[in-house]
Amino acid sequence: MATSATDDGELVNNKHLENLVQETLPLSEIVYCFAYGSGVFSQALTVPQNSSNSENPTNNNLIDLIVVVRDSRKFHHENYTKNPSHYWTPPRWMFPAGTAKDYKDHDALVSWFTSWQQPQQQQIRSTLTGLIPLNIRGGDPGVYFNVTDSIKYGVVQVEDFMQDLSDWKYMYLAGRAHKPILPLLDLNKERHVNQRQQIINAQEQINLPAALSAALLFLSRAPGKDGKSVQSCSDLQLFSMIAELSYRGDYRMQMAAEDPKKVQRLVQSAGQLKRFQSLYQPAVEHLLSNGFSMDIGNNNRGDQNKRLWTWDSSLQSQSILESNLPPSLSKSSYNINQSNNAGSVPPFADWLSLQIANRVRTSAKAQSIKGIVTAGPSTALRYAARKLSKGGSVWSKLLFRGHT
């Protein structure tokens, strides 16, 4: 979908996306939906007017959507009825024994597609999860992606999404929501009001304050010889640290299959710093209301660094930041880990970084393996080729030289 960016880098607006979703997907089970990625906000870095822009990704990108649903089995049943071409029709041998004599049978096919998606049933996910190696099986974020010519949409059960937002169980969708997104709040707004509000509360009161707290902890340095514990950083440094959280441990980065400038594009592209500032203002107020000492002022060093964040990194302030982390990554969890390990345990910030990286690595691998099966090999390969062809990764330069 070729689009042109506004001055603030926005490629599409809410109304267009709401109409697109309404025309494409069944609405009855949709609780919450948001758009993200380079098809929504430009990720083109500013280049001199007369120079080549081959380092910048094209605006002809898919629109990425996350669709949070109340009952994924029902959603997929309705969606397959409406959009059968969105689903890969698997060969008969991939069905569990006794599922159907004819793999074209509608109910049997929908049942196969969605059996793994219900988190509250023990027999679910048996076929697809069985294809995921045991060591990463528990990190499956439960997202089912479909790819069309214009959109890529991931469908997730509301319980799985809430677990990620509130405890970074997978650090998958929670990590996407650390960056600017475009929520479609008017979509289906008369239905599932309470569940939608719970999601918004979890995002604003847990996920974003946790991301801000983690970034400030990672940016904090030990007090100097003078004993002062005042720390400082720019907007650019802080939001780059936040954007980088969900890429720690990502195997795509380690294999050079992802754009090495990804974080830079997420933060420094047109309009992104302002979006980060707006996104995290409630989280700042949340920390201040908890007694955290922080000041945001100007440092007169240009647009990219115009605000200076200054905060106190005393033990009391660090304790406030730690208390805003997800429960499974809290200081109490760290202390339990210390008591259960006879060997040396790294300092808390290092332990936290390792825990985040492990979750990112596990969920990314599990989701990638599952994606090949659910989307089908040909669709998965086409999407991977399209992603690589944007330019920036080592593989794109080797495989798509002259075609970006």
Structure description:
This protein has 404 residues and is of the alpha+beta class. The strands form two sheets. It has a five-stranded mixed beta sheet with strand order 3-4-2-1-5. Strand 7 and strand 8 form a beta hairpin. The longest helix has 28 residues. The two termini are 16 Å apart. The C terminus is likely disordered.
Task: Compose a concise summary of this entry.
By secondary structure, the protein is α+β, with helices and mostly antiparallel strands.
Strand content: 5-15%
Helix content: 40-55%
Shape estimate: globular
The N- to C-terminal Cα distance equals 16 Å
The SSE order reads HEEHHHHEEHHEHEHHHHEEHHHHH
**Stretches with pLDDT under 50, minimum 5 residues:** 47-58, 91-106, 116-131, 393-404
- Secondary structure tally, helices: 17
Query: Total number of β-strand segments?
Result: 8
Mean pLDDT: 78
Instruction: Briefly note the structural class of the backbone.
Output: alpha+beta
Q: Biggest sheet: strands, sense, closure? A: 5 strands, mixed
Provide the gyration radius in Å.
22 Å
For the biggest β-sheet, the strand order reads 3-4-2-1-5
